[in-house]
Every structure is written in structure tokens, then in C-alpha cells.
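User: What would this chain look like folded?
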Amino acid sequence: MLALAWVPVVGDVFVLAAGLVGVRWGPFVGFVTVGKGLRYLLVALSAAAAPSL
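Assistant: Here's the prediction, encoded as C-alpha cells.
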């Protein structure tokens, strides 16, 4: 679920819940990094594919 940390509003709830239940630091950072990294990769690819105005 932490890979979905990039989702507006819902992602914040996942991060908060992970902190409250005591998810270990390593997996937490890994999953959040993968989720946010994929988001920004998708944004960059979308911007590169968009036609110039």
C-alpha cells in the first residue's frame, strides 16, 4: 500500500497508518520511493510525449 503514497489524500493516510503500526524504516522508504519514483517517471514520460504548442 505504501507504493500508493503518491495518490492525493489517500496516500497520506497510508503513510500515516504505516507510521502508527510501526512499519520498519527500510521497507517504508523503499516502497514510498518506488511509488513516488514511478509517479514522476510517468509524469516525465507524459510531458515528453505531449505535442509542443
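The first helix runs from residue 10 to 21. If you want, I can go into more detail on any region.
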